Amino acid sequence: MLRPFLLIFAAVLGVTAGVAFAAPAAPPLPDIFTAAAVKVDATAESATAARDQAMAEGRPVAWARLYRRLVAAGNWSKQPQLDANMLLRIVRSFEVSNERRSTTRYLADVTYHFNPAAVRAVLRQAGIPYTETRSRPAVVIPVVAGKGADLTGPWAIAWKDPVIQQGLVPFVVPAGVPEDEEILSRPDLPAADWAALAPLARRYNAAEVILAIVSEDAKTVQMIELSATARTAASFAYANSTFPADAEAIAERTAETWKTRSAVNFGTRTRLTADVTFDSIDDWAKIRAQLGAVKAVSDVDVTGLALHEAEIEVTYFGRPEQLRDALAQQNLSLVNAGGEFTLQLAGKSANAR
């Protein structure tokens, strides 16, 4: 609890309850609410009519792709069926590439940019748990069976597909720098444990490493997912497949694990009190900003402030462990000690002062 003799209430310092926290600057990432490169193909009585029809037919395809990106597979059957007018309203803009047309036919790759607020409203009104929180990166080591790691071939290139990179789990292929070589050149790479791969994960700020092992003909693929707490494996086999399809299968499997864990039911609102510890005013400012970037947090009240401590009340959606995970993505550590919560910047020690 906040020490009484240090307590200076927020009102004394001119800090008001429910203060709005500004989101921190973040490195650029693909927009989670964009459906890239949707292929459209329509025929009508004129080129203009064909183009309009193609754009209209592409919107529900883009909506289905976005919905499945944000929602765990167990709720895919609950996808709201939006009519043409509603789809037109929730799409903010679009871009066209690879455009081809004749007097009656139109083909293109269309990227649809959805309005985030409108999408959230649709999902919340339907009562569907979802997440737009990205996990920490996963390092993918592309391995061709019998040949070892390959960072330049078609298997590695498949992991750079924009559709995969727009997902909830950012995938990073090692850059092949000399520091990586000792790990990537191991002849027993598929048998490597977390202790052997952890240095690679740390270099890329990743929470896990995925060994993606594919056959030369791309018909079979195995994923070995390693983290500090687990090692899991899965295999896929297809009569006909491609490297991009195999990469998509692994990416979907990884994203499904993350969505199942982090999808928030926005019909459930909870409140908790937390003691915040920090070393400086700059650290306090970082904590406030990073709290404001968590979509599951609906309100934060600062109830007390002292030299290295604060007391806050947080109103949030979902479960406490989901809040903890969402805060961790913003470099914040929330610790629950018998129902008493402490919040601080990740990597800081509460006993260091």
Topology as a string of helices (H) and strands (E): EHHEEHEEHHEHHEEEHEHEEHEE
Mean pLDDT across residues: 88
Structural class: alpha+beta
Terminal residue distance: 16 Å
- Low-confidence spans: pLDDT under 50, at least 5 residues? 2-27
CATH topology of the largest domain: Rossmann fold
**CATH architecture label of the largest domain:** 3-Layer(aba) Sandwich
Radius of gyration: 24 Å
Helix percent reads 25-40%
What is the number of helices?
A: 10
How much strand content do the residues show?
Answer: 25-35%
How many separate domains? Answer: 3
Just give the CATH class of the largest domain.
Alpha Beta
Q: Compute the number of strand runs.
A: 14
Tell me, briefly, the overall form: flat
Largest sheet: 6 strands, mixed
